[in-house]
Specification:
Structural class: mainly alpha
Helix content: 55-70%
Order of helices and strands: HHHHHHHHH
Largest sheet: none
């Protein structure tokens, strides 16, 4: 495994797993899923790397089914924490001043995502970085029905945690993937930000429409 040179070493999935093992994975998944300051933590790339290392029995001696089960639990509990935080804080969250680790813009994006997709956003947001962290919080602020939230939380957490981890596990047994692991991880990160880039361009187009050409 080679380091994923997209940020500081302490955010590199391989470094995190080799240093903290399965416990580190669970803590990060929990934090990124629902803690207000967890949006910067690696999510998709961490789970993909978890699958890769589980395939090679490197740093993770636990069987794949147990790894997946525990990651699902951590993801569901993380969203649960975010929901309860949103219920407690309420609408004051939208008036909270910006800081180094908090941007109201991120809450606004998650709120727009939640309003657009309703309960489905709890599942869909799992696959969108940043939005994944703030959507359960917004669901709590909006007082989404608790049973509905739990249902979609479990579905989304299972699809995300098991899907990406198992994908990494099976791809990790392919020689080409093992030989180009850094490029594969970069591609995973790049694909995960495509929805955000698309939404940014669409919002910018609505905010700054192209001027009409003369004669039209």
């Amino acid at each position: 495994m080679t380091a994923l040179a997209l940020g500081p070493q302490w955010l590199d999935p391989d470094y995190l797993i080799s240093t903290f093992g399965l416990i580190g994975i669970l803590v990060i998944v929990f934090g990124e899923s629902g803690l207000l300051i967890g949006f910067f933590l690696p999510g998709d790339s961490l789970l993909f790397t978890t699958g890769l290392l589980a395939a090679g029995h490197q740093y993770l001696p636990q069987p794949l089914w147990l790894v997946c089960l525990l990651v699902v639990v951590a993801a569901v509990l993380g969203d649960q924490a975010g929901y309860l935080f949103g219920r407690k804080v309420g609408l004051s969250l939208f008036n909270r001043p910006d800081s180094r680790l908090f941007k109201r813009e991120n809450v606004g994006k998650a709120n727009a995502f939640f309003e657009k997709y309703g309960p489905r956003s709890i599942v869909l947001a799992r696959f969108v970085p940043v939005v994944r962290t703030f959507t359960p919080i917004v669901a709590g602020v909006s007082a989404m029905h608790y049973r509905t939230f739990i249902l979609f939380n479990v579905i989304g957490g299972t699809l995300w945690a098991v899907g990406i981890t198992v994908l990494g596990y099976f791809l990790g047994q392919i020689d080409f993937v093992k030989a180009h692991i850094e490029l594969i991880l970069i591609a995973i990160v790049a694909l995960s930000v495509v929805p955000l880039a698309f939404e940014y361009l669409r919002t910018r187009r609505r905010t700054y429409p192209r001027p009409a050409q003369d004669g039209q």
